[in-house]
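User: Quick sanity check before I run a bigger batch. Here is a single chain. Can you write out its predicted 3D structure?
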Amino acid sequence: MDRRRETEIDRVFQKIPFLVGLSEAERIELRKHIVHRVFRRNETILHEADTSNTFYLILSGQVKVINISAEGKERIMAIHKEGDFFGEMAILDGKTTSAAVVALKDGRICLINKESFDRIVMANRWAVDAIIDLLCMRLRQAWLQIRVMSFADAEHRIRAVLQELGEKFGVRDSRGLIIGLGITHQSIASLSTTSRETVTRFLNKAAKSGEIELLADKKILLMGPFFKKTS
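Assistant: Done. Predicted structure follows.
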């Protein structure tokens, strides 16, 4: 593995709570067992109900985690970007994956097999504690998402999704928080379990009221009035 690629992987390691505490020797050993893969937009990286023995790190690009209903309707559960990861649940419990993962943009991922993950990561007590903390945090986030999606009306769901996207992907400037994903109205609708038309109406209304600004390349600027009304 060349030095440039090692540096790139180490940069991603530093973004993952349970890898950042590995020793230099453990990081070197883990890098030896990494497999690199390129993926293309709309490519399915992981199918729902697959038996996965692999942990995935995103070096570049974006992916969406989805469920498909019995009627064939797609529901986006999450969006991951560079420095994020997926597959941790299946690699920990050995069961089938509960969702599919599809590329939103071209990109590259690192794959770590279960044997290497168990031998290097799970043998580090600090890493195990960090994994437990992460799973607790994701459980709390899941309960919050269930509560929001179950009881709020469509506007509240859309606001919650935009706020979450802003917190995860947003870049601050003097005007507010820019969601730079280039996310489509349909993707926002899928995340908020509503229709694309409802999302479009809300975004247009919020833009007219000065809460948001719809920028080029499908970017969205969330401004002060949005956060005051959403909180």
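The radius of gyration is 19 Å.

User: Great, the batch can go ahead then.
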